[in-house]
Specification:
About 25% of the residues lie in helices and about 35% in strands. The protein is built from 3 helices and 8 strands; from the N terminus they run H-H-E-E-E-E-H-E-E-E-E. Strand 1 and strand 2 form a beta hairpin.
């Protein structure tokens, strides 16, 4: 498992990429900064919501954004801490285009004692042309923090 006290988003995603929900959906690491993480979700037929259009279902995109924003909290802290999604609002601007990678950038912009505040954008490579915007909060489950 990845180092929990010196959090590195790339190493973390590589360590868990073949496990659980994220492994099944198939999103992976793309990039990160001090308070943001960007994941990539390659288009796959199994993730299509409507076969007649080839457009990805919303569920895999929402799951990727939940993970990207969660990882952004750990990136900002520089370490892993147990947390759960308290709230995640998703506003779709448009459908994801068939056969294109969807990128999900999550940013943690504020951390209080027990709550972290996040926002993010799902896109095809241009942050100024979003597929969706997200805003949410994560609650710290580490009672010793």
């Amino acid at each position: 498992m990845a180092d929990t006290e010196n959090f590195n988003p790339k190493q973390w995603i590589e360590a868990i990429s073949s496990h659980g929900h994220g492994g099944h959906i198939g999103f992976g690491y793309h990039d990160h900064g001090d308070d943001w993480v960007e994941l990539a979700l390659p288009w796959r037929k199994e993730l299509v919501g409507d076969e007649s259009t080839g457009i990805l279902a919303s569920g895999p995109i929402i799951s990727m954004m939940d993970n990207a924003t969660s990882l952004s909290v750990w990136a900002r802290l520089g370490k892993f801490r147990p947390q759960v999604t308290l709230d995640l609002r998703v506003d779709y601007m448009r459908a994801a285009e068939p056969n294109k990678i969807v990128y999900g950038r999550g940013e943690c912009y504020q951390i209080k004692r027990s709550i972290a505040f996040v926002r993010g954008i799902a896109h095809h490579g241009d942050l100024d042309d979003p597929i969706a915007h997200v805003a949410g909060t994560f609650i710290n489950m580490d009672v010793t923090a």
